[in-house]
Design brief:
By secondary structure, the chain is mostly helical. The termini are far apart. It has 4 helices and no strands. The radius of gyration is 13 Å and the shape is globular. The chain has one domain. Helices cover about 45% and strands about 0% of the residues. Bound molecules: protoporphyrin IX containing FE. Protoporphyrin IX containing FE binds next to helix 1 and helix 2.
């Protein structure tokens, strides 16, 4: 709702570009940095895999579970 649809973005964005944007943000454009979030950095590969799967249609449904277990 605040940034571009990542479903569309990941059709063209490389994994490197994705990781860099999430880690460093684009502060001038209003995208915050998640580089200091250990949880995001530790799960970057999973985050990318999930969003890429949603983007290319390989994943159509997800079972979301709480992280604090
Ligand atoms: C409150 C949280 C967030 C805000 C305010 C925000 C805002 C934005 C904005 C304004 C942009 C466009 C920047 C530009 O024009 O270059 C952007 C891009 C982007 N955001 Fe966020 N974002 C947020 C959270 C996230 C999260 C949680 C992720 C990852 C899961 C993410 C991943 C990205 C990526 C990959 C792009 C680049 C998309 C592209 O180049 O097509 N953002 N974000």
């Amino acid at each position: 709702m605040v940034g571009p649809s990542l479903i569309n973005s990941l059709k063209t964005l490389s994994k490197e570009e994705f990781v860099k944007t999430v880690r460093d943000g684009r502060l001038d454009k209003g995208m915050q940095s998640f580089g200091t979030s250990q949880q995001v950095m530790d799960n970057m590969d999973h985050l990318y895999a999930y969003l890429k799967g949603r983007s290319d249609g390989a994943i159509t449904r997800a079972k979301v579970e709480p992280l604090n277990k």
